[in-house]
Design goal:
alpha/beta, about 45% helix, homodimer, TIM Barrel, eight-stranded parallel sheet
């Protein structure tokens, strides 16, 4: 297995856990890191104090390297990065927004930077900004999604051809087959969200995990395609949003109808009708909850078996 | 390389050329078959007499196995299948529509049947219908596209897990990396459209081929998402259609605005503004025209090299 990622990030296996709002807390991040991957605390919904607490808690659970994921569109993204750096977190994962100033800020503080992109131009800009690892995330991924709708299969080799820094593939990967496929495309690691969402250590509501486990291949849909695409489980809320979009409602009208707190309703309350359950297309392949360590071990052992058949 | 596909279809390599309206004529199909893959005459825009002529012409160009692709939504699909069978074509490729009665018809005539699907349920139905090979085609593919938007990375392993018949991956594949990735996901072959569109033997208009070669990763878009999704090069016509869709025009209004003959305008006249240029997301990776034989040879040789790195 050819990969520069473990050495750069200080981890055992090139398997990253993607940041997921309300889902990737200290417990899940620590479990993934203990399993040999890179756990990441998703700071999306957290105030700076809460992030500090979660970092402290993660440190009490593991001595291994973990990271923090901070969406750059947050007005206080810079403050959050400083919180993470001061707390001694060595890896910053950023998504959305322009990585330029924030990468410089994080690197001044001695952090390594992983940046998520959804097209080649974003990858080139991330490389110019000096990021250490680029995550190329395809349209099949759960949660926030690029406007260009490039899939993992089409995106990864085009990004690999465009940049020198190591590329990690994300979107549509939940087992060893997906990991070997990603490496065949030129990736040097994989990042998974949905698979770790459906893990024993994930703090997502039981009904959320059950939705993921029971979903079939047609279980997800993109809402907000025109103004902010998000891949979610097809439920009552998702269908309401799609209906409004097809009727030509304005972005403002749709945003008002959606209202705040939908992802929290999903992750914390398990509100099947009113929650927004972010989830990737690979959910149809996820049939049971497993521990994060087991997910990682099965991928690494399976990798050799799958590669041997090629 | 583990694959049942060459033996079932009577070809040398498990590389299929997808049917493309106005593009996959006898010349291209014969070139692909001469190169060791499975060439296919795309009967989409042809009357029965023209199909007969093209089959005769392909036979004059190659002694190797080739097939005919017939979209099942054609009112005369049954007649077209009989034309192909009577002309001695051994392989029928079908897409869209229900494969049940047509598979029986083709198999009575001694043909092997390859059926294209875009979700797991369609694959299960195709298997029940008795098809010999299932092509699982992802959202990144050019031309007509499934409503579920499943990508190759997410779709292929889920289809492989659901059926016993061999699965061929399509969508987002244009080089050996994509082929190895497809096999890692459990596919036993690949089908390519866009790569063969940009071949020396393709009869597509030179301006069409140039569009494919020059396109970057963000070069394509889905039009008709609500009523009949088609992936095309982002040009004036595509933008007009997207605009109408975002303004909430009815399907009838959009269809009237589009009018007939748009794919012919693209493929035959190379009308950059008014044509509908079907094309897959992988166009950004295609940098030059090559002969079909070269495309196939590079994939087969590259396969071993890529697999050896895993």
């Amino acid at each position: 297995m050819k990969t520069r990622v473990p050495e750069i990030l200080g981890i055992e296996y090139p398997i990253l856990q993607g940041g997921m709002i309300w889902v990737t807390d200290a417990g899940l991040a620590a479990a993934v890191s203990e399993g040999g991957g890179l756990g990441m605390i998703g700071a999306g919904g957290m105030a700076p104090e809460m992030l500090t607490e979660e970092i402290t808690r993660a440190k009490s659970l593991t001595d291994k390297t973990f990271g923090v994921n901070i969406p750059l569109q947050r007005p206080d993204a810079g403050d959050m990065i400083e919180v993470a750096a001061r707390s001694g977190v060595p890896i910053l994962s950023t998504s959305a927004g322009n990585p330029l100033s924030f990468t410089a800020l994080a690197k001044e503080q001695g952090m390594k930077v992983v940046h998520v992109v959804s097209n080649v131009r974003m990858a080139e800009k991330a490389q110019e900004a000096g990021v250490d690892v680029i995550v190329a995330e395809g349209y099949e991924a759960g949660g926030h999604n690029g406007f260009d709708e490039l899939t993992t299969m089409a995106l990864v080799p085009q990004v690999v051809d465009a940049v020198e820094v190591p590329v990690v593939a994300a979107g549509g990967i939940a087992d060893a087959r997906g990991m070997v496929a990603a490496f065949a495309l030129g990736a040097e690691g994989v990042q998974m969200g949905t698979r770790f969402l459906a893990s024993l250590e994930s703090p997502a509501h039981d009904r959320y995990k059950e939705l993921v486990v029971k979903a079939n291949d047609r279980g997800t849909v993109i809402t907000g395609r025109a103004f902010g695409p998000v891949r979610v489980i097809k439920n009552t809320l998702a269908e309401k949003i799609l209906q409004a979009e097809s009727e030509g409602w304005s972005t403002e009208q749709i945003m008002e109808m959606i209202g705040p707190g939908r992802t929290m309703k999903a992750a914390m309350e398990g509100d099947m009708d009113e929650g927004s359950f972010m989830c990737g297309q690979i959910c149809g392949m996820i049939g049971e909850l497993k521990s994060s360590a087991e997910i990682i071990q099965e991928m690494m052992e399976g990798y050799k078996e799958v590669a041997a058949t090629l």
